[in-house]
Design brief:
Layout (H helix, E strand, L loop, with lengths): L1 E5 L5 E3 L7 E3 L2 E2 L13 H5 L8 E5 L2 H11 L5 E3 L10 H4 L1 H12 L3 E5 L8 H4 L5 E6 L5 H7 L6 H13 L3 E6 L7 H8 L5 E4 L5 H10 L8 H17 L3 E4 L2
Parallel strand pairs: 1-5, 3-6, 6-7, 7-8, 8-9, 9-10, 10-11
Antiparallel strand pairs: 2-3, 4-5
Helix pairs in contact: 2-4
Bound molecules: iron/sulfur cluster.
Length: about 250
């Protein structure tokens, strides 16, 4: 992994993503290296030659820069993050996400945070103090072996479920992002998440060409079709709604 410290020019960026006003990405690149990652397009803009998952630029000035930007910014919902994981392993050392949360908390900007890592619990003291916050854990399948195939460097599903449980106990609003829909069985996935989340968001594999080879090599072609995404998406939606959990299908 090639790590580089950089000074960003801006860190709080206006976004057109529905439901959010700003996005905030403390890093460029991501150590989780998910095989389906759509954020790999960032490579084009940053001049990196290394494969996605093998470089990280750390925006070391992000917390101080954010403090400055927040002085003038109109309050609005901040999405952390959209093209990196704010709690990827390197955050343990650099604490850039934590620094940004401190700045946002100071101004009580509402936050929507999404991660694949229980490292978010390190900052629970801050998360609990936001008036408006939602913390999402991505859970793309119920099957740890499948997780390992598609997300070789990210934390286990069980550790994410424990993180959700702790967040709920601490009265932080939680959601599960089931996206992209990897090969999965709806019943065990719903059972795993029941009682741990307030809402659920579901998305399909958006760039199938990127992972076609991996699916084929592992005999999983049937899980990469429009039919699979539609049928499993609807099945999950019905099951969660029966449990009183609101679901947004975003495809
Ligand atoms: S955690 Fe998110 S940003 Fe990181 S590699 Fe996986 S999909 Fe990409």
């Amino acid at each position: 992994m090639r790590v580089r410290e950089i000074f960003a020019k801006t860190v709080l960026t206006r976004t057109a993503i529905s439901g959010f006003d700003y996005c905030l990405n403390p890093y460029v690149g991501c150590g989780h290296g998910c095989r389906y990652c759509y954020a790999s397009f960032m490579k084009r803009f940053t001049g990196h030659k290394e494969p996605w998952g093998e470089f990280i630029d750390v925006k070391v000035n992000a917390p101080s820069l954010l403090k400055n930007q927040l002085r003038r910014a109109k309050p609005g919902m901040v999405a952390i993050s959209t093209v990196t994981d704010p709690y990827q392993p390197i955050e343990k050392t650099y604490k850039i996400t934590r620094g940004c949360l401190e700045a946002l908390l100071d101004k009580q900007f509402p936050v929507n945070l999404l991660t694949r890592s229980p490292l978010c619990l390190r900052d629970i003291d801050l998360l609990k103090r936001f008036k408006k916050i939602e913390v999402g854990l991505t859970v793309t399948t119920h099957d740890e072996a499948m997780k390992k195939l598609f997300e070789p460097c990210s934390p286990s599903i069980s550790s994410r479920l424990k993180a959700l449980e702790t967040l709920r106990k601490e009265r932080v609003r939680t959601y599960a992002f089931i996206g992209p829909l990897l090969p999965l069985k709806p019943a065990p996935l719903v059972k795993m998440l029941e009682g741990l989340v307030d809402t659920v968001l579901i998305d399909r594999v958006n760039y199938p060409n990127k992972v076609k080879g991996l699916y084929r090599k592992n005999g999983l072609d049937a899980y990469l079709t429009d039919d699979y995404f539609n049928v499993i998406g609807m099945d999950l939606k019905e099951r969660f709604e029966k449990k009183g959990i609101a679901v947004s299908l975003i495809f």
